[in-house]
Amino acid sequence: MVTLDQIQSYMREELSRDEGKAVTVSGETLEDALQQAAIELGLPLKRVEYEVLERGTRGMMGVGRKPFLILAYPMPEQARGDAEESGPAIDLSLLAEEEVDADRDGEVFVRMAPDGIMLKVTKPVGGGAKATERQAMEKLLERVDEGFDKGRVAKAVKLAQGEFIKVGEFQYDPSADASLSVELADNEMKAYLKAYPPGDGGADPSYDQIVSFLQMNGVAEGIDEEAVQRYADDPRYRESVLVAFGVPPKNGDDARVRYSFELDVSHVKLKETNGKVDFKELNLVQNVVQGQVLAKKEPAKRGEPGRTVTGRLLPANDGKDVEFPVGKNVRLSDDGKTALAEINGQVVINAGKITVEPVHVINGDVNLRTGNVLFLGTVLVKGNVDDGFTVKAAGNIEVMGNVGKSNLDAEGDIIVHQGVAGKSSGTIRCGRSLWSKFIENARVEAGNLVVVSDGIMSSTVLCDRKIICKGKRASIVGGQVKAVEEINAKSLGSVAGSETILEVGYDPKRKEKLGAIEEKRDSCTHQLDDVKLNMSTIESLVKSGRPVSDEKKRYYQELKEKRITLEGDLRKIEKEAAELREYLDGLKVAGRVSASGTVFPGVRVSIKDAYLEVRNEFKAVTFISDKGMVKVTKYEETDEDVTIGRR
What we know:
The protein is an alpha/beta fold.
């Protein structure tokens, strides 16, 4: 028996031994012989040179087999230097970030094989410790008492190539080989290998032997090659080890619908503006436009069958189809996989189906609870619109209560069942008509009609057709009221003589726009005059021969560029103003202003270019234009049907 003291003495001898000698080695193949030579020389393969003394042969069925015999020696210093200088080709993939393995110590494995005693030493990983000769010797002594070459063991440990290397001989007895058994479990979904250690002269099972044994015993699928290799390297005798596992069947996923909108609108999404949260922008309405994708259906997937370790097929179920929940104003694409909006409106889930509602109903007031409202359809407010809030709709807006200092904007009609109290900053804009009980201290723009029952007070109202105040108290008092065709009320002005401006016979919105353009033109002309004056001053200095500083020269260039810009802007403004004047002059609308009751002093009536300031009270009159003058005639009832619904 080799003692620990003998091992330590041997290691000290090996450390002092000269490594620069030639060796004669043999191996089943040339590669085996070279690896053995590298171990004995204690050198990497790339630094070993050799000569083939005898070429080996494989023989037939093991008969006549002859090993390779080579003479190996270290590469000369000069050749070695050239090889090291040239070095390996640079692998650019090394520049990529690699996953760092966990620290792992080097390991030693011993296997008794028919060819001899085999030793495998692996390199450490990361900060792991190297395997030592002592570990290798202890591993060997666990299996054999003698028969191994200590020099080969030492060099195998030093190189740590991670492959089995022959380090000794033993008297091989095939009848004493390790015996194997296999056990199937979990309905043939797992296979466990169990081995019993070899007897004297017997060999450990190899990787190929284990795989062949499993296959011969019906294990045809799911063999874990890594587990088998680990077992071949380091057998765990008398212990069941999982070496194969089946593939369970995988049922197909059911079809599912992926929605393109938020199903749960109870979670408020606050909008942040300039670092501040706007509590009026709650975004509770999910608007969609015609043709917009609302949802897509993912088809059911086919199941994937499994197999047991014996190869038996395990069927799988295909996924189930689901109904595409499509409701009103929603259609399916030709392939039935996409839901599309048929109209503009609000997308909701109604009775479990995707629905686009053309009307958005607010069951109460528009306030902090609802936030501002933006809807691509019609909005119905069953309460009031509180001060500071906005309602915008691509369709109509109907408010059952009052509208305060708010902003209402609709492409269609606006109906306010009570009234508008704008408090000098409320605005109403509609593409078609406005119906309201009253309008007070607000600005209104309408594309067709403005119809009021109780009156208009201290407001600016611009209408593309007619403004009608029809009711027992239907009056227009204060402010500016302008329409293209007609203004009609019960009374105009007040006993107190409030200034009330009434204008008809032209497009008020375009005339207002023309006024804004003319103001812009005047401002631009004034700036241009100042620029030209400053340029003229500098030009006079040059003409008089007086010195001009660099700063003034730069200033002159800036003025020149500004003049070019202003002249371009002025040309565009003049063109736009000319087009508006041409449109206004071409309007063939006579225009009239009527009062079925009283017209009080203080009222100013303009019909096209004619103008009249009322100084005396009139009863039941209509003002018309006649030969460039405003003429007072008998009252004429409006011929417009102002019933809500005829719009």
